[in-house]
Amino acid sequence: RLVLVTGGAGFIGSHLVDRLIKDGYRVRVVDNFSTGRLENLKHLEDNPNLEVMRGDLKNEQDAREAVKGADAVFHFAANPEVRVSSISPRVHFEENVVATFNLLEAMREYKVKEMVFASSSSVYGEPEEIPVDENAPVRPVSVYGASKAACENLIHAYSKLYGIRAVILRYANIIGPRLRHGVIYDLLMKLKKNLDELEVLGDGTQVRSYLYVDDAVEATIIAWRLSNGNYEVYNVGNEDWVTVNDVMNIILNELGLSNVKIVHRPVLHGVGWLGDVKRIALKIDRLKTLGFKPSTLSRGAISMTVKALVRELGF
Ligand code: NAD
């Protein structure tokens, strides 16, 4: 079976490619290398089961070429920078909504009947209570979250109209080797430049759940294989949650730093930027009914990620 992974040169996408190749699938990657890196797939360079196509899903023709001949589509291409979406909403509309629409149209044309979509916990916005289950209202507060919700709805309509079996995965913060965005990467890059002072966006009390990328990939494969509805939504997160200050302390601890001056930069109600969410964590009971269990809790996942990124970024 030929499986298409959009955004397969990116962080989660490349780990998913590793797993699909290991499981014996033929894999085609389409990526425009905006944030993705060929280096993430370098170890598979000579693997005959991997085909890498440079293409941009905002372009209809590229989307058609990517989809042609595929049996299933894992749609992971997106602009993942939530912060940028408040500054450049159009970029997110195009990278996420237009690209997804082009992909769905290509799937309709070539009669591809399976799709797994990388959605996000940001579709929930600022829930009154955490953790939230999949029935919580979809009330995004960032254009990124809104674009993911729009994609989910488009996929829902296509699944009903054209018989596409769709699995929607609402990921919490996914972290691990090859990560190049988000709070852990941001803090490490700042420390790499200056070990004396560290700027933390927000008041540090923002709450998040962190899941190691291997667990996220395992959850993805389990949901794809075992969900049997026509359109199913799953939260993919960890069973606990921590604050941004906890993340900062784990990083400082891993690096053996104790004299760094911390400067918090809160906006509005203590968040890091316009569109940032103060508290979010996901209930994962539905995923657990399929047999999923995270192998590492948030703190362990953060430590492992810091160790990996310190090696990759050359501290
Ligand atoms: P990433 O930036 O590493 O991966 C995105 C990939 O998509 C990159 O390789 C990029 O080059 C590619 N891409 C972007 N626009 C494209 C286009 N128009 N055409 C072709 N390729 C394009 O980010 P990631 O963290 O690996 O995220 C993967 C997916 O998971 C995204 O859809 C993201 O929104 C979603 N997600 C990630 C997280 C997380 O914590 N990492 C959480 C929730 C959802």
Write a structural description:
- With 315 residues, this protein is α/β, with parallel strands linked by helices.
- The protein folds into two domains: 2-174 and 212-236, NAD(P)-binding Rossmann-like Domain (Rossmann fold, 3-Layer(aba) Sandwich), CATH 3.40.50; 177-209 and 240-313, UDP-galactose 4-epimerase, domain 1, CATH 3.90.25.
- The protein is 39% helix and 19% strand.
- The strands form four sheets. A seven-stranded parallel beta sheet has the order 3-2-1-4-5-6-11, sandwiched between helices.
- Strand 5, helix 5 (143-162) and strand 6 form a beta-alpha-beta unit.
- The chain is globular.
- 47% of the residues are buried.
- Bound molecules: nicotinamide-adenine-dinucleotide.
- The site of nicotinamide-adenine-dinucleotide has 29 residues, from helix 1, strand 2, helix 4, strand 5 and strand 7.
Topology:
Layout: E1 2-6, H1 11-22, E2 26-31, E3 50-54, H2 60-67, E4 72-75, H3 82-87, H4 89-109, E5 114-120, H5 143-162, E6 165-171, E7 173-175, H6 183-193, E8 197-201, E9 207-208, E10 210-212, H7 213-226, E11 231-236, E12 242-243, H8 244-255, E13 261-265, H9 285-288, H10 298-313
Helix pairs in contact: 1-7, 2-4, 4-5, 6-8, 6-10, 8-10
The structure holds nicotinamide-adenine-dinucleotide.
Key phrases:
315 residues; alpha/beta; Rossmann fold; UDP-galactose 4-epimerase, domain 1; two-stranded parallel sheet; 10 helices; 13 strands; 19% strand; globular; binds nicotinamide-adenine-dinucleotide
